Amino acid sequence: MKVVAIVGSIRKESYNMQLAQFIQKRYTEKLDLEVLSLKDLPMYNQDIENEAPQAVLDFKAKVKAADAVLWVTPEYNGTVPGVMVNAIDWLSRVDKVMIGKPSIIMGASMGNLGTVKAQLHLRDILFSPGINSPLLSGNDVYIGAVHTKFDEEGNLTDEGTVKFLDVVIDNFLSWAKKYV
């Protein structure tokens, strides 16, 4: 299954990017995962949405070509980061490439609650009319104390978290097949 990961952090040492890259490496036999960068997306502007910059067109084309989307969000001030909202704004306009495309949400933070608040907000956003993405429920991935769970090479070393991800990824792939 072709999946794109949209990571809401552009920080060089982002734990959420490490999580997406770990999933990309670990489940390479189960899914074809491309981690998309949000660094080059300009701020959404309705004045140019019909003649969007090439970076936007390329980003939207990759999302459109994917069978599903993995959203990996940090939590900034109790909500979804601005770069992720900006990406969603572009995806929700003109050709609306997310409508009907299955999604799963994950997130990691140094706090104990993972990214619970951000994921709740993201869930609401993904149900909005311009996105309308079916979400896998009951497989919530909130990785707290993430700074203790990755090694210097970006490997997730917490055995319980890895085993949980194994189950969630299998559940997601089985569920998402009905939309492909």
TrEMBL record:
Question: Which keywords annotate this record?
Answer: Oxidoreductase
Q: Which GO terms describe its molecular function?
A: azobenzene reductase (NADP+) activity; FMN binding
UniProt cross-references to InterPro entries, sorted A to Z: Flavoprotein-like_sf, FMN_Rdtase-like_dom, NAD(P)H-dep_reductase
Sequence ranges assigned to domain NADPH-dependent FMN reductase-like in this UniProt record: 1-128
- The protein here is known as NAD(P)H-dependent oxidoreductase
Q: What is its EC number?
A: 1.-.-.-, 1.7.1.6
> Where on the tree of life does the source sit, at the highest rank?
Bacteria
UniProt-listed PANTHER family: CHROMATE REDUCTASE (PTHR30543), NAD(P)H-DEPENDENT FMN REDUCTASE LOT6 (PTHR30543:SF21)
Q: Which GO terms describe its cellular component?
A: cytosol
Is the keyword Oxidoreductase in the record? yes
Q: Which family does it belong to?
A: Belongs to the azoreductase type 2 family.
What the entry lists under Pfam families is as follows:
FMN_red
According to its UniProt record, this protein's enzyme class is: oxidoreductase
